[in-house]
Design a protein that fits this description.
Layout lengths: L15 H58 L24
């Protein structure tokens, strides 16, 4: 019977360049996979935020912008006791006096 020679190499038979290349490619593939998973996670979280959370806080953000615009139009305020919020700005009842 003839003995077949195998093409398998052990770590002792390979050169340092081949070991470096295999480890580099494995590490690069691992990093690339992590980046893809990270991007997918960001897209999922963005979609959840825009469909579930943002519609609930949008009225509050609109109120804040209109309030800041009206405060910018007011003259200089000293003491802070004369602040009157116009009725055109719709605030939740908890923020009213």
């Amino acid at each position: 019977m003839e003995q077949k020679e195998t093409d398998r190499k052990t770590i002792y038979d390979t050169g340092s360049g081949e070991i470096f290349l295999k480890n580099f490619l494995a590490g690069f593939g691992h990093a690339l996979g992590n980046i893809v998973v990270y991007i997918i996670l960001i897209v999922i979280l963005y979609n959840l935020f825009m469909t579930k959370v943002f519609p609930r806080i949008a009225p509050f953000l609109n109120t804040l912008t209109s309030l800041s615009e009206s405060l910018e139009k007011m003259p200089n305020i000293s003491g802070g006791s004369g602040i009157v919020i116009p009725d055109s700005i719709k605030l939740p009842d908890i923020l009213r006096n």
